[in-house]
Every structure is written in C-alpha cells, then in structure tokens.
Amino acid sequence: MSFKQILANFAKKLTTIAQKVPQVYEAGKQAAYKEEWDERQQNGNRTGYVYGYAGNTWNDKTFDPLHSMYVSDALGMFTQSRIGDLDGIIKRKGIVMDFSNSNRFTNMFGYSTVKYAGHIDTQKASSLGQMFESCYYLVSVSLGLNPAGTQTFSNTFRACTALEELDLTGCIGKDGFDVSSCTKLNKASHLNIFAVISTTVSITVIFSKVAVNKAFETAPGANDGSTSQEWNDLVDTRPNATIVLA
Amino acid sequence: MARETLKAPKGKIYKRGNDYGYQVHVGVNDDPNEWKLVDESEMPTEETPPEME
Q1: Contact: A246, B21; criterion CB under 8 Å
Q2: ipTM metric
Q3: Residues A141 and A165 sit within 8 Å (Cβ to Cβ)
Q4: Quick check: B27 and A136 CB within 8 A?
C-alpha cells in the first residue's frame, strides 16, 4: 500500500469517527441522565419525597423525572421550586405521580412558582396546611379530599391570587377553608366548592368578594354577584355553614 | 331558624377572631353577635408577589 493510500484510509477512518461523535455524545448524555435519575429516584422505588424537589434549582428544565412516583410523604416536596407546568411535565414524560398513599402535604408547594399542579389525591392526610401558601402563579389544581371531611386547611390557599380553577372531590367538614385570596376564582370552582361543603357540620368557609362579584354577576361588567339571586340560592344550599365574603 | 346575612357599611368590615368579611351569611347554628364591626384597615393585607428568578 502506498503512503498516499495509507493517508486516504486514515482520513476515511477519522471521518467515520467524526460522524459518530454526535451519536456517541447523545448516548453518553442518555446514560448520564439515566444514572442521575435512577439514583435520585432509587430506580423508581423511592416513595419518600420530603423536600424532594424543593428550592430554586428545580424548574421546568431541570425537573425531568425518569420514573413514576408513588409518593408516601409529600411534605415540602416542591416548596420554593421554580417549576411551573408540573402537570404538563408529568404528562409529557408519560409517567405517573400518585399521591393516594401520601399522609403529608404540609407546605408541599409553598412559595413555589407552580402554575398547573394537576390532580393530587390527598385523602390519606389529616392536614393540607400551607400546601399552596404564597403560590402566586398557581392557575389550576384538582384535589381529592377525604370524603369524611376530617381534613384541616390552615393557609392552604393563602395568597393564591392567580388561582382560577379549583376542582375538588370529597368533603370540606372543618373550619379553615379559605379562598379569600383567590380573586380570580371562576364560577365553576365556586359551584364545585359548595358541592363538597358538608351539609351537616357548622363550619365557616371564606370566599373572595371580588371573585364572587365577578363570577356570579348578573350582566357582563356588573360585578354584582354577591347580591345576586344565584349566589344567595347557592348559599342557601348550605344553611349549616357560615359563608363569608372577604 | 332563618339564616341572617350581615353586610358591612362602607369603610367597615366584620371580624370574628381571625376571620374577616364584608358580607357574612351566618350559619343557622351560629351566633351573628359573634361578628363585630371594625374599621376596614384592620383587615390583614396581602404581601406582593416576588419577582420570578
């Protein structure tokens, strides 16, 4: 083989290596991602997520879970994080985030930037204290409450000023359910909340007067919902409850 | 017993413990006298949202 042929062969091999570099790089990246999240999520077996994704290093890019999560403890799980579309991320990843066995949700999202929180089954927990406290960007969330109505709600939705959609199942049977900060809460959410207020227990439930005035207004722009017949009829469905507009 | 509805006049708000309201639909088993009229300024104000990082 001439020197010229040797050089040509060498150049061909270098070209082949260079062409494969992106594939090698991508394979390496995937391997590193899997190793990182296998460890973080204990190969999918992790159930305790106390402060699991807390803090401002977690955002819609860095929160990229590999495995489904069957959470037994969600205390502070996303507190102070910068994740916005939690529901969208989980759906895009094609994984499950199941909270049906979680017995703690205190401060789960407190002071975070969560916008779409998805559905969270809270039935096993006795307290939802501070669960969404100061979640100023929260727009929608769906909660499965305990049907027995035994849960407490201390500052659960305090300062959730962007909340529009609140979907509830189960029962509100204790004092402290307060959505007075939620000035953008839509009509369907108000109807939904009333549907789960206990029909027997003497409790106090607090709404935003601004939200009620808008949601139940008798004509576009009237902002008179709090004095509307529709609102008063709704209130009358729960004579046992003290309904406050703050 | 019929439910009583309390409506605070302008500049005032009803207070009971840590609960505040401009309008209170009192439950049939609750006592409307527990709610006291106070100045609207007594109502806690909301903190402003922080800048997103």
Answers
A1: yes
A2: 0.92
A3: yes
A4: no
